[in-house]
Design brief:
By secondary structure, the protein is of the alpha+beta class. Helix content is 21%, strand content 41%. It has a single domain (8-160), classed as Alpha-D-Glucose-1,6-Bisphosphate, Chain A, domain 4 (2-Layer Sandwich). Helix 1 crosses helix 2. The longest helix is centred in the last third of the chain and has 19 residues, at 142-160. The model has no long low-confidence stretch (mean pLDDT 94).
């Protein structure tokens, strides 16, 4: 499944032991995003949320000291929001002010696209369980998909611990 020929998508689904409202808040509330954004050992010192269609949130993940301690900023520019069901956004790497940067400018491989389309879907399975699926579109290699999947799995683990 891909948007463009020759590209690969990362798809990850997990069931959380939380009502859909809590999982939704994990994506829309600054304090919640700061609890789970970034892989294990990383922190999220910034989550300036402008959670609305057309809005752009600025999030930061900070590497642990043993990995250099650097801050990596992203923006999430929202294209479509269907409350409690779907969030579509474009992720970009940025400087601390939200100015877009090419992934190579922040030390990442050249096969990571400039704009990464994300679709987050939530499905209430019952009053205490929610299925969450994140799809990231347009990677140039299966290796980058594997790296992204590993990072998102760790984010999901951290998110699950918040409920």
């Amino acid at each position: 499944m891909s948007d463009a020929p020759g590209t690969y998508n990362m798809v990850l689904t997990r069931v959380f032991n939380a009502p859909v409202e809590e999982v939704w808040k994990a994506w829309s509330d600054s304090e919640q995003v700061m609890r789970w954004w970034g892989p294990n050992g990383f922190t999220a010192p910034v989550a300036r949320m402008d959670f609305r269609e057309g809005g752009t949130s600025l999030v930061c993940m900070r590497a642990p000291k043993e990995f250099g301690g650097q801050d990596m900023y992203n923006t999430w520019t929202y294209k479509k929001i269907v409350p409690m069901q779907r969030i579509e956004f474009i992720q970009n790497f940025t400087d601390p002010d939200g100015k877009k940067l090419a992934p190579t400018e922040v030390g990442l491989p050249p096969d990571i696209p400039f704009d990464v389309r994300h679709v987050v879907t939530l499905k209430s399975l019952d009053e205490r369980k929610t299925e969450l699926t994140v799809t990231e579109y347009g990677y140039a290699s299966e290796q980058i998909v594997a790296i992204s999947r590993s990072g998102m799995e760790q984010c999901f683990d951290k998110m699950a611990a918040t409920f």
